[in-house]
Amino acid sequence: MRRLACVFAGCLSVAATIAFTASAADVKITDRPYQRHDGGTDVTIASCSNDAPGTTAGGERQQNEPAAAVDPNANNRMTAGSNDYCSVPTTTDAYAGFYWSDSRGASWKNSLLPGYPTDTSAEGSNCNITPQHCLVINTGDPVQAFDRWGHVFYGVIGFNRSKPSNGSIFAARYDWSLMTDPDYRWTALVARGTPTGATGKFEDKVQIEADRGVNSPYAGSAARPWGNVYLCYAQFVGGNGNNGVFFARSTDGGRTYSHPQKISEGVKGSQFCDIAVTSNGTVYVAWRQFENSRGHQIDAVVVNKSTNGGASFGKPEVVTPFIHWDVGDLAGAPKDVREGAMEQACEQGDGIDCADRESESGATREQTPTRACGDGPFVCESGYVFFREDSEPRIAADATDTANPNAAYIVYNATVPGSETPTGTSYGTVEPGIGSQGQLYFTRTDGGSWMSPTRVTPAQAKGHQFFPDIDANAGKIHVVWQDSRHDTASGPPSTPSGGDYRTVPISNKWVSSNPPGSVSTGPGVGVESYHAVSTNRGGSFTEDLVSSAGQMPQYEQFGSRNIPFFGDYNSISAVGNTVLMDWTDMRDPVEVKPGNDPRYTNGDGMDGFDVLQCRTQDPSTGAWSGDTCPNAGGLDENIFGSILGP
What we know:
Layout: E1 27-28, H1 43-48, E2 63-70, E3 78-84, H2 88-91, E4 95-101, E5 109-112, H3 132-135, E6 138-146, E7 151-159, E8 168-175, E9 183-191, E10 201-210, E11 229-237, E12 242-250, E13 261-262, E14 270-277, E15 283-289, E16 300-306, E17 317-321, E18 329-330, H4 335-347, E19 369-370, E20 393-396, E21 408-415, E22 421-422, E23 434-435, E24 438-445, E25 454-455, E26 465-473, E27 476-483, E28 508-509, E29 519-520, E30 527-534, E31 542-551, E32 571-575, E33 578-585, E34 638-644
Antiparallel strand pairs: 1-34, 2-3, 3-4, 4-5, 6-7, 7-8, 8-9, 10-11, 11-12, 12-13, 14-15, 15-16, 16-17, 18-19, 20-21, 21-24, 22-23, 24-25, 26-27, 27-30, 28-29, 30-31, 32-33, 33-34
């Protein structure tokens, strides 16, 4: 397996916290020439590297849902990943991007996880080594983890947008010896989905962790130079929701994984799991339990624990209930029109995550809830434009903390109690017509009960916090999130202070009716990326702004340029005083000039959320062509990161 040696320039990040220094700017991780893992090339690698604006190549396509990992043995070595849409022109779908740095984030190299449909490499096209090559076209939800022995584990979901969907869980392994680049070894099939339908299974929402505990019997030894590897995921059945959280482990360095065991209980409605492993090898799995319309369960953070290396789990425990902050609206187009557009977008690799299609019940548009809104078939009753976002928990443990060997830490975003307010439209975050402020909450355990949750930044009076992630190492707890405190979004002018940001989505201005519907706040600050650190086990946090680049998260880059998708999460990884955090970033997309989408004359095409696209209209039918300039910058969604340290 050939190793590569080319390096591309980057820059370090702007930020500072207690005991940290920083450099001039945050670093762009993606949007660099691509390299195949074996040094060869193929049509997809060439397309992903082609940034020429006059082509339909993949060099300026979207990347979102980043992963991040730092090597505990050498903090100059870092990896990242994303849903990478550079493969769409050659394979019809997105695939897992794999990016790495051996310069502590100063420079990054871009590649793809082997196994994409056009991969002609010996390993990537061999279904015994890389099973996804023969089972699925798309991979997504990338997650990564190092063990203590120079191995990088890369978990993904894989599926087909057409039948059979085969929604499955895969976990790859790279070996990374000193003075080399990561060396791809194999991918294991962890859990295989079945064709969807009334009883079909779709495995989704994966997370991964490796045991790095300094006193853990499962972290490896000289005779067993690998640590246990753990995966959790949600299993969806028949398109009617999910029936719980499942868990699998590998004890042989990622070659094989155990038969998945269900570790959640209760009625369906559990997902967004995450894993933490303590210094003594205790495994915690946290997830969100969704409220049930019949009142059988409430929104809550739930945890289950294993004390035998993931071999078995106890009874799940509700850590804390919360009021969700889930943006939503009612669809403004007929149900069959919206679902038809979603289906078409999914088939063309242009969906907002077709592995998790919205469950939109009801015969009329008034009865149809939705989690994301845009133009045309994706318009909502309020007329606002917004990406999907749900309250999610994340969990971490400090693998070096021998004084607190059972400690674990959770962060989640939720509604601030008492902040609920009528929106005056069908838009809401608690329920249709009720908005609220979304903020980050923290809790911890030392192995027994969990402390009462506290806000990470209790003084924040305005704006929302979302997509949190957490890590702990060397006695410090680190949190990353995206924040809209400087957004100029505002509600009806009749409300106090000229408008209430809780009544409209991020980057939207209030309007009285639809049409004209949504109006953008314009270029500038929509969301920013923040980091906070605690040196007293979460007793208090010190925050800092790690990226002030003005971002418009509502750019309509998906569904034939009709709907936004900002991904579902950010990532953070800490080793000692070195911290890598990364996020989906919207500073690079090119807007439509002079700002209109020619397909719409009812206001949708003039909302300020439209990206650059090239279309022609057939005068005989009035039909518009597809976008003929996708590489001209309208789809240039990237992964940026920040590296903190001494």
